[in-house]
């Protein structure tokens, strides 16, 4: 049962990947040369969808707020930036991670071990139909028994979302002098990351160590380096934020799950600068948790962190992703980066598992302090109303555009059995995008392409709508086929111009009306051309 569900999810993913290619959402980069692993191109529909996601994020994060300013910084920054942020040192040695404790070790410092190695092919859940097909292995450490090893494996599958893991495919093998296990707990280690995750390049004509630079692995750091400039020019007072959308590059060891883990991707990041709690306390008691109201001067990091979580969830709901499709994961204290006070991840239920779309971190004042240290430039801020000088703390909602687009595509994908007027049943593939993000908002169709009056009227309607929304004009083939094509593209509305529109049928009251078809319900209603624009705009934004 669980296996068949798993197979179904895999099939769904394959169908989604194939639809993405067939309909021009996403192609493999450089496909004519066999492709390049971890790089993807967005086709005509995909680029519209992606643009909509970015535009909606930008609008909600900056244009609709008085306390956030935008930035568009370079991809290559001074290499010192990455020293200050910790990226150069964190990624520069071959590293392995313990799959249980998440502790990271230098691969060349692992002590060789011998003993019985236990292997599992995966686990099922006794309390749900969840399955995890991740392979895992433990080394039976001296003095430990089979129960101890299985306990370790159970912990591993619990961390992957199974409540009561039932281990599958157990085998054992004697191993000698292996460096694949953690001597502290017997857990398997990841493969060594023998290279820097940052893409390296050289600035200028000489390929020397002095000229090494990196393609940014995140957009956030440029925001910190521009903090002082933006403070000055934007005349914004803390609390305020700076946000940016742009490319980031990570030489991921194992790109996978379609675009989910790519080597080139886009991020949408906000750094929201706030008062340290002790300064906020001057304005009243600092709330210790959720503060439902709008921002207050006495808010410390906890209230701001929860505020941004709420705002981000409201935004997800506005593009059709709700608690039905999303999950929150609060990182445990031992999982947090050393400077982070709290991080909550917003996860989406992908067919390949529930995975991170966005992280919202309370990062203290780590980043600005580091840049102050490495650049020698003060990052202190004078707070007029608090009469205090401090290095601001920061809340960082950081989201991936490509993961968001993939989540929207997976969420939209539906297969439905439909029966036509002649009683014929067929499978309709329909992408149920929220109209706000849909690549094309409306399809315009003259009923017949060889009737100049119909075509002329359809073109009039097209010209009326085009300044306000993305419109697709299609006159080829039977009208039912045209509807189906737009269903696959995720176009929420279709407008058909027929003989009633021209006033050529019996009912003269239908002159200058069109058929408006809704993608999801497939219902059709007659609408006056004069009312069409207003009605569509209302439906797109509702
Ligand atoms: P993961 O643990 O999945 O690698 P992360 O915690 O390292 O992600 P962050 O550094 O917090 O990710 O980056 C913020 C966001 O950028 C992520 O939530 C994700 O949406 C996006 N992102 C990060 N790495 C990738 C990638 N390789 N491909 C696509 N998107 C990514």
Report on this model:
The chain has 542 residues and is of the alpha+beta class. Helices cover 30% and strands 27% of the residues. The chain has a seven-stranded mixed β-sheet with strand order 3-14-15-21-18-17-16, sandwiched between helices. Strands 25-24-26-27-28 form a five-stranded mixed β-sheet, with helices on both faces. The radius of gyration is 28 Å and the shape is globular. The model has no long low-confidence stretch (mean pLDDT 94). The protein binds adenosine-5'-triphosphate. The site of adenosine-5'-triphosphate has 16 residues, from strand 15, strand 18, strand 21 and helix 11.
List keywords for this structure.
14 helices; binds adenosine-5'-triphosphate; alpha+beta; five-stranded mixed β-sheet; seven-stranded mixed β-sheet; 542 residues
How would you characterize the largest beta sheet? Answer: 7 strands, mixed
The Rg value, from CA coordinates, equals: 28 Å
C-alpha termini separation: 40 Å
Which residues form runs of ≥5 with pLDDT under 50? Answer: none
Which small molecules are bound? adenosine-5'-triphosphate
Strand fraction band?
25-35%
- Helical content, roughly? 25-40%
In what order do the strands lie side by side in the largest sheet?
3-14-15-21-18-17-16
Helix/strand/pairing class, anyone?
alpha+beta
- Arithmetic mean of pLDDT: 94
Report the strand count. 28
Tally the helices: what do you get? 14
Rough shape?
Answer: globular
């Amino acid at each position: 049962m669980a296996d068949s569900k798993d197979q179904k999810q895999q099939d769904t993913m394959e169908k989604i990947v194939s639809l993405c290619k067939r309909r021009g959402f996403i192609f493999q980069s450089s496909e004519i040369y066999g492709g390049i692993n971890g790089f993807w191109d967005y086709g005509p529909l995909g680029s519209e969808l992606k643009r909509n996601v970015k535009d909606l994020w930008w609008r909600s994060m900056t244009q609709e707020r008085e306390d956030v300013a935008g930035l568009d910084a370079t991809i290559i920054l001074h290499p010192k930036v990455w020293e200050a942020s910790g990226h150069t040192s964190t990624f520069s040695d071959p590293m392995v991670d313990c799959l249980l404790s998440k502790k990271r070790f230098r691969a060349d410092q692992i002590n060789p071990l011998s003993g019985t190695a236990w292997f599992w092919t995966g686990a099922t859940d006794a309390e749900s139909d969840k399955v995890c097909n991740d392979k895992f292995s433990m080394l039976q450490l001296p003095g430990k028994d089979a129960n101890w090893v299985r306990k370790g494996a159970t912990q591993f599958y619990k961390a992957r979302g199974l409540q009561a893991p039932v281990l599958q495919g157990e085998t054992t093998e004697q191993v000698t002098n292996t460096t694949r296990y953690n001597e502290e707990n017997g857990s398997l280690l990841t493969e060594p990351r023998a290279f820097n995750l940052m893409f390296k390049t050289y600035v200028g004509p000489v390929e020397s160590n002095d000229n090494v630079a990196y393609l940014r692995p995140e957009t956030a750091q440029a925001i910190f380096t521009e903090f002082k400039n933006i403070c000055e020019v934007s005349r914004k007072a803390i609390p305020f934020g700076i946000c940016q959308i742009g490319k980031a590059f990570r030489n991921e060891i194992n790109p996978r799950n379609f675009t989910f883990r790519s080597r080139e991707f886009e991020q949408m990041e906000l750094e929201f600068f706030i008062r340290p709690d002790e300064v906020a306390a001057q304005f009243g008691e600092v709330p210790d948790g959720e503060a439902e109201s709008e921002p207050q001067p006495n808010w410390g990091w906890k209230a701001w962190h929860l505020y941004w979580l709420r705002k981000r969830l409201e935004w997800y709901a506005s593009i059709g992703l709700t608690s039905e499709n999303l999950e929150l994961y609060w990182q445990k204290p031992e999982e947090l980066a050393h400077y982070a006070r709290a991080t909550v991840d917003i996860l989406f239920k992908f067919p390949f598992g529930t995975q991170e779309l966005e992280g919202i971190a309370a990062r203290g004042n780590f980043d600005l302090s580091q840049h102050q240290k490495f650049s020698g430039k003060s990052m202190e801020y004078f707070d007029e109303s608090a009469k205090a000088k401090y290095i601001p703390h920061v809340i960082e909602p950081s989201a991936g555009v490509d993961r968001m687009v993939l989540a929207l595509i997976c969420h939209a994908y539906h297969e439905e059995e439909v029966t036509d007027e002649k009683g014929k049943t067929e499978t309709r593939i329909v992408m149920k995008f929220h109209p706000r993000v849909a690549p094309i908002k409306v399809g315009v169709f003259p009923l017949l392409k060889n009737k100049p009056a119909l075509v002329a009227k359809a073109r009039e309607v097209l010209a009326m709508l085009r300044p306000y929304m993305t419109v697709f004009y299609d006159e080829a083939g039977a009208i039912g086929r045209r509807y189906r094509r737009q269903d696959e593209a995720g176009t929420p509305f279709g407008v058909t111009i027929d003989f009633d529109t021209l006033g050529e049928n019996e009912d003269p009251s239908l002159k200058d009306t069109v058929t408006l078809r809704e993608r999801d319900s497939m219902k059709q209603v007659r609408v006056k051309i004069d009312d069409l624009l207003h009605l569509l705009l209302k439906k797109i934004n509702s």
